[in-house]
Structure formats: structure tokens, C-alpha cells
Write the C-alpha cells for this entry.
Amino acid sequence: MKESFRLEYVFDNASLAALWSSISTPVGLSSWFADDVIVDGEIYTFMWNKSGQNAELLQMRLNKYVRFKWEEEDDKTFFELKLSQNELTNDIVLTISDFSEPDELEDAIDLWNTQIEQLRINLGL
């Protein structure tokens, strides 16, 4: 049974608008999360190495978060990309909520870390 986990990444020199675009638009997501992203209504097809995986957009709140559910997963699992701003430092925090099998947790965290590094590179950070 999959278990939830949460990761936080601090972006100290990024604009909220740039990060929001990176996590909520097909062009933004295809710059770091997938090779390509195709949207048809509420269904996002994430392409990796010419193979696609569909996810349904469950919720989106402008400049706050996007939540997706992989098509083949049960209704209790999702992945969410959420933005918040530290009021003292003005740093933007990207919080990722996801689910993984217990024996695959380390690999899932490594994958997110790799993808976030690509996001930082794309943002020039």
C-alpha cells in the first residue's frame, strides 16, 4: 500500500510568477518535469522517452497549488505541487506531496530531487 510523503524545496531568488508557470502550465512542466506535456481538458499526458502517462487535474488554485492523480492509481493517491512564501525572508517554498510504495520511497525522493535540480537550472538559480 502506498504511503504519503512530503518534500520542501526553498527558492530564495525565484519569482512567484516564474515558479507558478513552471508547475502549472504545459510549457513550464515540460521544461523540468517531463519531456513534453499535452493537455486535453482536465487530462494531462506527461511524456517521457516517447511514452505517455495520463494524470487528471484534480484541483488548481492560482499561484497556490496544482494537484494531479495518475490515471492508473486509486482515488486516494495524488501528487501536489504547492507554493508558499516565507513572510520573513520572502523565499518561495515549493512543497511536493506524493505517494510511494515503502520500498520505493528512496527512489521517489531521488527522482524529485533530480527534477527539482532541473527546475532550478531552468529558472537560472
Summary: The mean pLDDT is 94.
